[in-house]
Amino acid sequence: MSARILSGKEFAAKFKEDAAKRARALEEKYGVTPGLAVIIVGEDPASQVYVRNKDRACQELALYSEVIRLPETVTEQELTARIDELNYDKRIHGILVQLPLPGALARREKEITGRILPEKDVDGFHPVNVGRLVMGEPGLVPCTPAGCLKMLELAGIAMDGARAVVVGRSNIVGKPMASLLLRENATVTVCHSHTKDLAAVTREADILVAAVGRPGFIRADMVKPGATVIDVGINRLPPDADHPRGKLVGDVDFAGAAEVAGAITPVPGGVGLLTVAMLMENVVTAAACQLAAQKD
Ligand SMILES: Nc1nc(=O)c2c([nH]1)NC[C@@H]1CN(c3ccc(C(=O)N[C@@H](CCC(=O)O)C(=O)O)cc3)C=[N+]21
Ligand SMILES: [Mg+2]
Q1: Above pLDDT 90, what percent of the chain?
Q2: pTM of the model
């Protein structure tokens, strides 16, 4: 048996098409183009790649985009002052501070991202947006889990009544993913490093989400036959002759799991692409809310 491959590229194209349509409708109605500001601090090479991808997606959809590059010597005060300016900036509807932050700023991540107005928080990291998600109210939802959910919907994977197991409990992926699946009436279990007999739990899953950050962590024998496996992991292996930059792999032993699963996302070419595409949707959603609120 061989699983259906859920192509991130295909679903991302659909998300972007939706976002572009909604952006054009807003331009028509309000004469305003949705705008994103991405703040990047320091020179981390992976972050540079991700930020470039986000900027490129904005160009592709003809959204307004600003990339604000700050040196790693920037102080927290300077950084939050820059966020405050963007909070007031009428051209900007979404603000994102690229993570991880370098050096001492890393320990102030909550305070820094929390400075972004909830209405412009297109990462969905602000406690107000976290609260809205848990309470089942409209708000901005973190891009990776929101992208996974929309993919499941478009792929016709049944969530209502399904057993869903999320491995990993981060604020960025695991917890919001669990909230979204619960909202869709799945029976949700969240596993983590203290979970006993993890394999017995994951083998119950109709929908298995891996977000642990460890290559090959989910093996074929942990997957229920026919299950949908979503691999959120982005791990770079040490460089070798074939992969001078290091091979990119997920948290799932793809070759093994694909023999057992009914459907599976690859890495690369899976969830990462959905994340960027969903960011575009969040920017347009944020713009729509702000423009509607300004009207009256
Ligand atoms: N404030 C903030 N928001 C984020 O959403 C955020 C962040 N910080 N910090 C880092 C993580 C990671 N992330 C990814 C985005 C795109 C790909 C992506 O495009 N992946 C491609 C290829 C990537 C490659 O070749 O390196 C793929 O999986 O096929 C992956 C990972 C967003 N993040
Ligand atoms: Mg991927």
Answers
A1: 98
A2: 0.96
Atom of ligand 1 nearest to the CA of 267: 28
What superfamily does domain 143-272 belong to in CATH?
A: NAD(P)-binding Rossmann-like Domain (3.40.50.720)
108 C-alpha vs ligand 1 centroid, how far in Å? 21
Same fold, 31-117 and 143-272: yes
Q: Which atom of ligand 1 is least distant from the CA of 144?
A: 5
Q: How far is CA 1 from CA 4, 136, 248, 260, 262, in A?
A: 10, 38, 25, 7, 9
What ipTM describes this predicted complex?
0.91
Q: In the prediction, which pLDDT does 296 show? A: 58
The whole-chain average pLDDT of the chain stands at 97
Q: Is the CB of 273 under 6 A from ligand 1?
A: yes
| CA 149/CA 56 separation, integer angstroms | 24
Domain residue extents for the chain: 31-117, 143-272
Q: Which residues share a beta bridge with 189?
A: 165
Which tens digit of pLDDT belongs to each residue from 277-294? Answer: 999 999 999 999 999 998
Active site residues: 54, 98, 123
CATH topology of domain 31-117: Rossmann fold (3.40.50)
